Amino acid sequence: MAAPLTSALLYLDGVSVSFDGFRALNNLSLVLEPGEMRAIIGPNGAGKTTMMDVITGKTRPDTGDVYFQGTHDLRRLDEAAIAELGIGRKFQKPTVFDAHTVEDNLLLALKAPRGVYANLVHHLSGAQARRIDEILETVRLAERRREPAGALSHGQRQWLEIGMLLAQDPALLLVDEPVAGMTDAETAETAELLRRINRTHSVIVVEHDMHFVRELDVKVTVLHEGSVLAEGDLDAVSADERVVEVYLGR
Ligand SMILES: Nc1ncnc2c1ncn2[C@@H]1O[C@H](COP(=O)(O)OP(=O)(O)OP(=O)(O)O)[C@@H](O)[C@H]1O
User: Fold this and answer.
1) Where in the chain are the domains?
2) CB 227 near ligand 1, within 6 Å
3) What is the pLDDT of residues 135-194, one digit of tens each?
4) Domain 1-86+171-250 is in which class?
5) pLDDT for the residue 115
6) From the alpha carbon of 53, which atom of ligand 1 is closest?
7) CA triple 210-215-109, angle to 5 deg
8) CA-only gyration radius of the chain, Å
9) 185 CA to centre of ligand 1 in angstroms
C-alpha cells in the first residue's frame, strides 16, 4: 500500500494489537508533528507500553498503519532498522555501566562514525568531546563527569540514561516513566531537561506523575483500553468527565 501523504513525524492510524484474543491496542490513532513533545497518560493496562513496542518494532500490529517521517513503514522494519532510522527508547530501568565514569558511559553510547578516514580520527575525537560536553550540560551531569556511574543518585542515573540516548542523536525519543522514584526536585529538573531536549528533538513521554506532566506543558494524549480517550492540553483533558472517571479519579 502507498504511504499516506502526511507531514507528521509519526503517524499511527487504526492500530490494533491482540494478545491471545485480548485487545491491548484497539484502533489506536495518533499523530506527532515534527518537533513536538507529547505526554501519554492513562490507567494501568491502557496500552501505553504496547504502543511504544509497536513504534519501536518490538511488537507487530495486527492491523493499522505506522509511518515515520511520512515514508518509512515501521511495520516492515525490525527493531535495529527502526533504531537506525532515528527512534530511540529509554526504558524505566537504567542500563548504565556502573564501573565506568559518567563521561565514558556517554562515549560508549556515541554513534560510531561510519566510513571515516584514519587522518580524521583526531578531529573526530575533538567533535566527540564537544558533543559529550554538550550532552553533560543538557542532562545536568557536567560536575559528575569523572565519577563512576555507580555513585550517581537514582535521578541522576535516569538523566545519564537520557544522555546516552541523546548520544545516538535520535530524531524521536521515547521516554518511559522517567520520574518514577525521583524526588520532587529531581522531577522538576527532569521536566526542565526534557523541555530543553525538545528544542532539538521530538519526544514522546509516558508518565503517571501529573505534577510532572503539568510542568512539561505539552499536548496530552489519554489512552484507555487501547484507544485514545481524549487529547488536548492538560487542563482540557483533566476537565473531561470520561478522563476523570477512568484515570484521574474524583
Ligand atoms: N506480551 C503480552 N502478552 C499478553 N498480554 C499482554 C502482553 N503485553 C501486554 N499485555 C496486556 O495488554 C494490556 C496493555 O498493556 P500495556 O503494558 O501496554 O499497558 P500500559 O498502559 O503500559 O500499563 P502500565 O501503566 O501498567 O505500564 C494489559 O492488559 C497487558 O496485560
Assistant:
1) 1-86+171-250, 98-169
2) no
3) 999 999 999 999 999 999 999 999 999 999 999 889 999 999 999 999 999 999 999 999
4) alpha beta
5) 41
6) 18
7) 95
8) 19
9) 30
Residue 176 CA, ligand 1 centroid: distance in Å: 14
The DSSP code sequence of 31-95 is EE-TT-EEEEE--TTSSHHHHHHHHTTSS--SEEEEEETTTEEGGGS-HHHHHHHTEEEE-SS--
Residue 111 has pLDDT above 50, yes or no: yes
154-167 vs 121-138: helix crossing angle, rounded to 10: 140
The three three-digit cell numbers of residue 72, written as one number:
518509512
Burial label for 168, CB within 10 Å (0-12, 13-18, 19+), is middle
Q: Is 42 in the pocket of ligand 1 (CB under 6 A)?
A: yes
Calculate how far, in angstroms, residue 28's C-alpha sits from the geometric centre of ligand 1. Answer: 14
135-144 pLDDT tens trace? 999 999 999 9
What does the pLDDT read at residue 93?
62
119 lines ligand 1 (CB under 6 A): no
